Each structure stands twice: as structure tokens, then as C-alpha cells.
Backbone:
């Protein structure tokens, strides 16, 4: 595999300003219920809202609600209604609603099912700087209010009753307009605590609007020019005591009954910006401008006194926001700041478990390629950039020592497109020949035609393509391989398809247009009503994966619940003859949101192509977790599939399940039946980062994530797991032995007692080339490291014991390396020429193709896309069933992101 390694694509990383969980904690009984929907919302400075599913530590970024121009998310609040019993042991979990502020006068409610704003409300007051939800009542009064603090010192109330959002009244007006209400929390249902910018913390009764008590911090004596202390964060413990963090770097504890200061802890060297507390009130966590995250616990034998246990610097910049969650086997604090990467820190297991940095890049990659034209398309914000990679990587690398330098220069920015509108681009797609580009936002879809006929300029002529006015935006868009169809997802769950019409004019000029779209009906799933009415509603029916088959005659879509729907392309005569008659399905087979009939699909002129539901679509089993990849193989993976004319549909879930379906039969493939979850390679299963995408090379699936690249050969069966495994390197923050999910609190896994993480050393293999070797794999046979490399050979009855380990040192001993430094497991090289030793010349032995391979050499992968599908050459890899593959790997590490100046300590700031 030839690789272009790129870092020139704009980095989709924006500062984290707010984090919030749907529940701060779950009671013991509720945490055991399977249908409790816990989600984490992350608000960013560019207006994006990310919805994450903790998944007991897997951390799946499910949906990104795109922001827009001059938008920012600076505060998030979840409102969860009380549970309701409906009999027979069934419970309708309280409906969850998400609200946000952005340092404006507006409060926004978000529709997670449609991935866009639902309601806006504002009043006659200044910009809102803080927001809190009134706790639920234990009596008959179930109404709850949103209370907001403003920049002009007002305390205002918003009503959210009857699924509405509206400004109700101004509760408090401070005499001085210079006083800013910066932070807020509820001490009880009717008492709100507000941190201000004038060195005070105020307690108000929202029933009467009266000031109960003012707690004073004094003047700022830290040596700064400011006289007043800003209370950036306030929290209340379960016993009513108050915790505050301020601009002096101090965390203060206040008695909740007398409203007097009980303790002051100088734990930060700069402002304390955020706080979090555990559900039982036994732990306090603070984050500050000095990049520290500090943990506090009560002092033994000293009632009401706290001490700082430790502090760490998990972030490379300010710690601006944090939220805690406990329940369902998890106990974590998630924090974020300008460095854009969320950090999950253990709460209950602090000091005994590792932390974990979550990916700062989106789960859905903002990168696609036009492989036949050697183009690469990326988007970020409202801008699309198109790059051309003129020369193959193999030609450049053959140039010797200057090949690497030439490879970095092998790119040209040929086009930039700005999509007009208030919303950012949510998805984009480019055809394989590079002549059609489609981009979607929350409000509309834009299409462009790229004309490369004028080669003198080196840039394409860009023409706008007509799109039906009835299209109202999309969260996902795809173009078929033959450029005849465009598919997109409206309102989160509605799958639409439209025909692309190409008109040939004079002088070789072609014109494209997109016809009227049609809705593709999904299979109705038998989901109990009490599940659909509670929690997040129909949010889990949101379609996140869409894929066309290689021949463009089948379309697949998958939602967060794990359901897969497929459609096939049929002509009018085929439908009338009953080959794909949707009208035979009863009403129960229609989508939950579809009340209309599918009779319109059976109408139309004879011979006209339409998308109809696959007759076997309902037979495809539900996935055990949300899918992160849905992709059709470029060729059948088994001879029987090719004979039946069926497809191979690969689905990978957030929990690392790997399934291959035969969609026309509605069944698992024979390969999936022979290779269940327990036979998938161990290194793949324990890698914490989720899969982001896949690139096909014949039966080989090149699977990549945020910090890994795996190759799985789906034409071969994997071996049974061995009872003893060597130390395995895991991506993320931890390293060590095999990880068992559920044994930690959802962050980075448990620390090994009296043990350090495996270290890496470099070993020279000759010719000035050095490779990393895992200390965990070092054995007594050290002399083999410096010996001549040889290609791995297997007897026909070899059981591949050493392949299962996947250790870098063992592969080095076997000579499984190439001149580019990429190591391949199993004895077959990719993108290089093997160096064989004397042992490789023995007769009666043969090299076995690799079953799987992996590397963590790449970090912060934005995406991997094929650049050029080359024509097979005689005597090459096609003799093994493989075609040469060239890809572009785009990395966007956080150190390459422009950040504001940060504090280093001792009064010094980054210049």
C-alpha cells in the first residue's frame, strides 16, 4: 500500500466551552435498567454540539449538530422529566431536553432527533452568562424553570412547561450595571446560588425574588491589577454546603446553613474556571487556567474540612468546563478547554485508574476522495477545499533519498468553495471522477459541477447545479459510484434519493441537474411504545451511516439503534412483475415515521428506475451496538457470493463487533458465522479508540480510527484465541495487559499495582534504519535482533501461534518489514519489497498471506481515502487477488492547532 501522509488539511478542532451529562448520577436501582439513556453533550466555540454515548467507557460520538457563523456554545443544561410507571414492570424514563446559551440574550432548545435547533427564546435583558435548571419537586408541583444570570446583573426566569420555551420574567435587578452574574447553581428547589464579578456570592429565593444572604470574598490580593474577585464557578454539595472557584486560584467551602466561609484552599496558581462534585459529596474536582485538574477529599477526623489529594495536568491549555457522572458501573469527570480534546478522568477510582483523552477530531470524517481523478476533498466550517495529488507515491519513493521530500510537495490546492448560509457544512461528497460535488447544511443542500476540460489553468471551472427547492438540508449525503444518484438524510432519520441527470451539449460541455427527491421507506421495527416515548425519544433511530454498493444498484443505511435498511434499484417493469414488490408488505413493515403507503414506488413509467425496499431487508438482524462503519466490499468476498450475485456489506459497531452480511439474502455471510466476536484479533478488540472508516483492497479491509490502522483479510478465517497473551499496546492513555470492559470506571482502565507501562526502545536493523521495539515483548534471544531479516515462512499445518501475538519484535525477527518502515503481520508485505534471508530459500515452504495487521504509527487521523485505483499489472499483487492500493492519510494532531496564549506557571505566559 502506497501512502501519502498529509497534514495540510484545515484542522476541525474548536475549543470546548461547555460539557453536560443528561444525569449527574443514577440511583442504584435505575442504573441497573437497560433502557436508561445517558448522553454527554459537548459545546464548542464554533457553535457545534456533540452528543456522546459513554458506552461503559467506549465513548462513541454519535451526532454532531453543526454550528454556524458567529455562533458559540458557552453553556449547556439537560432537563430530564421524572420517570413514569405504566404497569407490568415497564417504566417510561423521563424525557430529556437540551438547552444552550452562547453569550447572547437567547436560550436555545435543541432537537436531537432532527439534529437542529428546535426553539429560541429571549427577553429584555443583557447577554446570558450562566444557566441552571430548577430541581424537581417531591410533591405535586412538577413545574420547573430555567434560571439565567446576565451580564447586566439580572436574574431572569424562562418557562419550559408544556414542551415550550419562553421568557417569563425578571426575578432580580441589581442596582449596579457593572455587576455580572457569572456562575449559578441551585442549593435547593427554591434557593439559587449565584457567583458574581464583584467578589460576592449571593443566595436568592426564586419564589419571592428576595436576597437571602451575601457572601463576600474580599479584594484580590494576588498582585493582579483587578480589585474584584470573579467567582467563575459555584457548586452545591448534597448536604447543602457550597463550593466556589474564583479568579485568585482558590477553592472555597461555605457552610450551607449559615452562609459563612468554612475553608479556603489555595490549589491553583491562576483562576479556577470550573468545578465538579461527586453524587455523594465525597469528592470535589476543580480545573483552572494553570492547566491543573485538582481533586479534594474530606480530611479524616476533621469534620467539614477538606484537603487537596493531588493535581494533574491532563490538558495542554486552560481547563474551562467539566461535568461528572456516576452510575451503570461508571464514575468519571469529563473536562475540556481550548485544546479541543475532552479528557475523561476517573472519579471514584481516582489514583487507581488512568485518565483518557478522547479524540478531538469528529467521528464522522470530513474527508473524501475522487479516486479516478486523484482528487481529495475536505471541508470545515462553511469552506470546501479540493486538492490534487498529481503523481503516484510509488514513483516519488523510487526517487531515492529525495522521494520523501517530493512526496510532501506532491499536492496542489486547485479549488476553494464557500457555501453561503448561516449553518456550517454537515456533510459533503464528491463523485469518483471528480466532476460532481454535493454539500449539505442544516438548512439546504448545495451541488456543484467541476469542469476540468481547460487544462491550461490547472483549476476546474465550478458551476452551480440546480437542486429541488423542496430540499431542507441534511445531516448526511452520498453520491453513487456511477454518479447517477444522490442520497441524503433529512431530519436525522428520513432517507431521500434523487436522480442526477447529465445533459451533453456542444463542444463537449455537459450540464448536471438533480431531479425531485423521493423518500425511501424504512422497515417498521417493533419497538415498544413505552421505550419510544421516554428518554431521548426516537433519537436512536437517527441514520448515521449510508453506503452505495460498487455497482450503484443497492443502497444501505444504518441508525444508532443498530437497525440496517437496504434498498435495491429496479425498473418499472420489474416492479410490476413482482420482482421487488413493496406493496406485499403489511402496514407493520413500514417505518415508524411513515403513515403513507408505498404505492407511489410502484407507479411510474415502465422501465423507469426507482429505489424499492429490499424484500429481505427485514431479515437482517439488529446490531448489538451502534454502527460506526457501513461499507460494501468492492468485490464479493467468497465464491458463493459472486455466483449468487449478492453483495458483501461490512458493519462494524462501537463495541468492535465485525459483521459481514449478504443483504439480498438477509443473512450473515459464511465468513461471519465462522468468525464470531471471540475470534477477532485481540489487538483490535482492546484498542480503545473507535473505528472511523474503511478502505478496501480486494478482500482486505483497511480499518482506521483516531490513532490506529488495522488490516483484516475477510477472505481468511482468524485463529482461536490463546489462553496466554503477551503484553499488548493499547491506543489512548493506557498500556498494559488485556483490558476487560466493565472493570474500570469508564476512563482509561485500572493501573497495575507496582508496575509501569511498557516502554519503547529503538533497535537498529541495518542501513541506518531504526524501529521501535516493545519492552513487553523482549525475550532472551536478543541476538536475533541484529541478524539478517527474512520473510516469514509457514508449514502448511502451522497454527500461526506467533502471528496472534502481533509483537513488533517478533515481526522484526521474521523480517516482516519494508523500506518505508511499515511492518506487516503474517509475512506478506504492503508497499515494499521483502528482504529474504537464507532461511527463506528452503524448499517445501511457502509464504502465507497476512490475516491481519496493525500499527499505531499514525496519530490523530482525520481520515484515510483512496487516491488512485491502479490497473493490475502482470506478476504483481493481483496474482494474490489484490490490486495495488494508494491512499492519503491525513493527520491533524492537536499540537498543530493554533491556540491562544497559555499560562506556564511562575507568572509566565506563552508568547
Residues:
Amino acid at each position: 500500500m502506497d501512502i501519502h501522509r498529509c497534514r495540510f488539511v484545515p484542522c476541525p478542532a474548536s475549543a470546548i466551552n461547555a460539557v453536560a451529562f443528561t444525569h449527574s448520577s443514577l440511583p442504584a436501582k435505575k442504573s441497573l435498567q437497560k433502557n436508561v439513556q445517558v448522553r454527554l453533550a459537548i459545546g464548542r466555540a464554533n457553535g457545534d454540539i456533540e452528543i456522546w454515548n459513554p458506552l461503559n467507557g467506549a465513548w462513541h460520538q454519535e451526532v454532531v449538530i453543526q454550528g454556524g457563523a458567529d455562533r458559540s456554545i458557552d453553556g449547556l443544561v439537560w432537563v430530564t422529566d421524572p420517570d413514569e410507571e405504566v404497569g407490568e414492570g415497564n417504566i417510561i424514563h423521563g424525557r430529556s431536553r437540551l438547552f444552550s446559551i452562547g453569550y447572547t440574550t437567547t436560550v436555545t432548545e435543541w432537537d436531537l432527533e432532527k439534529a437542529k435547533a428546535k426553539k429560541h427564546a429571549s427577553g429584555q435583558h443583557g447577554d446570558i452568562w450562566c444557566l441552571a435548571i430548577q430541581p424537581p419537586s417531591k410533591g405535586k408541583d412538577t413545574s420547573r424553570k430555567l434560571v439565567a444570570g446576565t451580564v447586566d446583573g439580572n436574574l431572569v426566569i424562562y418557562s419550559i412547561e408544556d414542551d415550550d420555551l419562553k421568557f417569563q420574567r425578571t426575578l432580580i435587578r441589581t442596582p449596579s450595571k457593572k455587576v455580572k452574574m457569572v456562575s449559578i447553581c441551585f442549593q435547593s428547589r427554591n434557593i439559587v446560588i449565584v457567583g458574581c464579578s464583584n467578589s460576592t456570592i449571593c443566595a436568592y429565593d426564586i419564589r419571592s425574588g428576595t436576597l437571602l444572604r451575601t457572601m463576600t470574598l474580599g479584594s484580590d490580593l494576588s498582585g493582579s491589577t483587578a480589585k474584584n474577585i470573579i467567582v467563575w464557578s459555584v457548586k452545591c454539595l448534597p448536604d447543602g454546603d457550597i463550593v466556589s472557584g474564583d479568579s485568585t486560584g482558590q477553592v472555597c467551602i461555605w457552610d450551607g446553613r449559615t452562609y459563612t466561609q468554612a475553608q479556603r484552599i489555595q490549589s491553583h496558581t491562576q483562576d479556577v474556571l470550573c468545578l465538579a462534585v461527586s453524587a455523594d459529596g465525597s469528592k470535589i474536582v476543580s480545573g483552572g487556567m494553570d492547566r491543573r485538574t485538582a481533586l479534594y477529599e474530606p480530611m479524616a477526623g476533621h469534620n467539614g474540612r477538606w484537603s487537596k489529594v493531588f493535581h494533574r495536568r491532563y490538558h495542554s491549555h486552560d481547563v474551562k468546563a467539566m461535568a461528572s457522572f456516576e452510575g451503570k458501573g461508571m464514575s468519571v469527570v469529563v473536562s475540556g478547554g481550548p485544546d479541543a480534546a475532552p479528557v475523561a478522568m476517573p472519579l471514584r477510582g481516582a489514583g487507581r485508574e488512568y485518565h483518557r483523552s478522547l479524540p478531538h477530531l469528529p467521528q464522522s470524517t470530513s474527508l473524501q476522495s475522487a479516486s479516478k481523478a486523484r482528487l481529495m476533498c475536505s471541508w470545515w466550517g462553511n469552506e470546501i477545499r479540493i486538492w490534487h495529488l498529481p503523481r503516484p507515491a510509488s514513483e516519488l519513493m523510487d526517487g531515492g533519498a529525495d522521494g520523501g521530500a517530493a512526496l510532501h510537495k506532491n499536492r496542489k490546492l486547485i479549488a476553494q468553495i464557500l457555501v453561503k448560509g448561516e449553518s456550517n457544512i454537515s456533510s459533503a461528497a464528491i463523485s469518483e471522477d471528480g466532476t460532481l460535488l454535493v454539500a449539505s447544511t442544516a438548512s439546504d443542500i448545495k451541488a456543484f459541477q467541476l469542469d476540468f476540460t481547460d487544462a491550461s489553468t490547472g483549476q476546474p471551472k465550478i458551476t452551480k447545479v440546480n437542486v429541488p427547492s423542496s430540499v431542507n438540508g441534511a445531516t448526511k449525503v452520498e453520491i453513487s459510484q456511477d454518479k447517477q444518484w444522490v442520497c441524503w438524510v433529512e431530519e436525522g432519520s428520513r432517507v431521500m434519493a434523487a436522480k442526477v441527470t447529465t445533459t451533453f451539449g456542444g463542444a463537449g460541455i455537459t450540464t448536471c441537474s438533480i431531479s425531485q427527491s423521493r423518500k425511501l421507506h424504512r422497515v417498521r421495527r417493533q419497538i415498544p411504545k413505552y421505550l419510544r416515548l421516554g428518554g431521548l425519544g426516537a433519537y436512536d433511530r437517527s441514520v448515521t451511516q449510508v453506503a452505495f454498493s460498487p455497482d450503484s444498484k443497492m443502497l444501505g443505511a444504518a441508525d444508532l439503534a443498530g437497525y440496517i435498511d437496504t434498498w435495491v434499484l429496479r425498473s418499472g417493469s420489474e416492479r410490476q412483475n413482482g420482482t421487488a414488490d413493496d406493496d406485499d408488505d403489511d402496514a407493520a413493515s413500514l417505518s415508524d415515521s411513515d403513515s403513507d403507503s408505498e404505492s407511489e414506488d410502484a407507479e411510474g413509467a415502465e422501465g423507469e428506475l426507482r429505489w424499492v425496499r429490499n424484500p429481505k431487508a427485514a431479515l437482517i438482524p439488529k446490531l448489538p451496538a451502534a454502527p460506526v462503519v457501513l461499507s460494501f466490499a468492492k468485490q464479493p468476498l467468497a465464491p458463493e457470493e459472486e455466483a449468487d450475485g449478492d453483495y458483501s456489506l461490512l458493519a462494524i459497531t462501537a463495541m468492535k463487533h465485525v459483521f459481514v452480511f449478504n443483504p439480498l439474502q438477509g443473512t450473515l455471510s459464511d465468513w461471519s458465522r465462522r468468525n464470531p466476536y471471540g475470534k477477532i484479533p485481540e489487538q483490535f478488540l482492546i484498542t480503545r479508540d473507535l473505528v472511523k472508516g474503511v478502505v478496501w483492497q480486494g478482500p482486505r479491509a483497511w480499518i482506521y480510527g483516531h490513532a490506529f490502522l488495522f488490516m483484516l483479510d475477510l477472505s481468511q478465517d482468524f485463529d482461536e484465541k490463546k489462553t496466554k497473551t503477551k503484553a499488548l499496546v493499547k491506543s489512548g492513555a493506557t498500556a498494559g495487559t488485556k483490558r476487560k470492559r466493565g472493570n474500570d470506571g469508564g476512563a482509561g482502565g485500572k493501573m497495575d499495582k507496582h508496575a509501569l507501562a511498557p516502554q519503547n526502545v529503538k533497535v537498529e536493523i541495518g542501513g541506518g534504519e531504526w524501529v521501535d521495539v516493545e519492552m513487553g515483548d523482549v525475550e532472551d534471544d536478543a541476538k536475533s535482533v541484529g541478524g539478517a531479516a527474512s520473510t516469514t515462512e509457514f508449514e502448511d499445518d502451522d497454527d500461526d501461534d506467533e502471528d496472534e501475538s502481533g509483537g513488533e519484535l517478533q515481526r522484526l525477527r521474521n523480517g516482516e518489514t519494508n523500506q518505508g518502515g511499515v511492518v506487516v503481520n503474517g509475512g506478506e508485505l504492503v508497499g515494499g519489497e521483502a528482504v529474504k534471508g537464507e532461511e527463506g530459500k528452503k524448499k517445501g515452504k511457502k509464504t502465507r498471506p497476512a490475516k491481519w495487521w496493525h500499527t499505531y504509527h499514525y496519530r490523530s487521523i482525520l481520515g484515510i481515502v483512496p487516491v488512485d485505483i491502479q490497473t493490475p499489472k502482470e506478476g504483481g499483487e493481483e496474482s494474490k487477488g489484490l490490486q495495488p492500493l494508494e491512499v492519503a492519510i491525513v493527520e491533524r494532531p492537536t499540537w498543530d492547532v493554533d491556540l491562544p496564549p497559555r499560562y506556564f506557571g511562575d507568572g509566565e505566559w506563552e508568547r
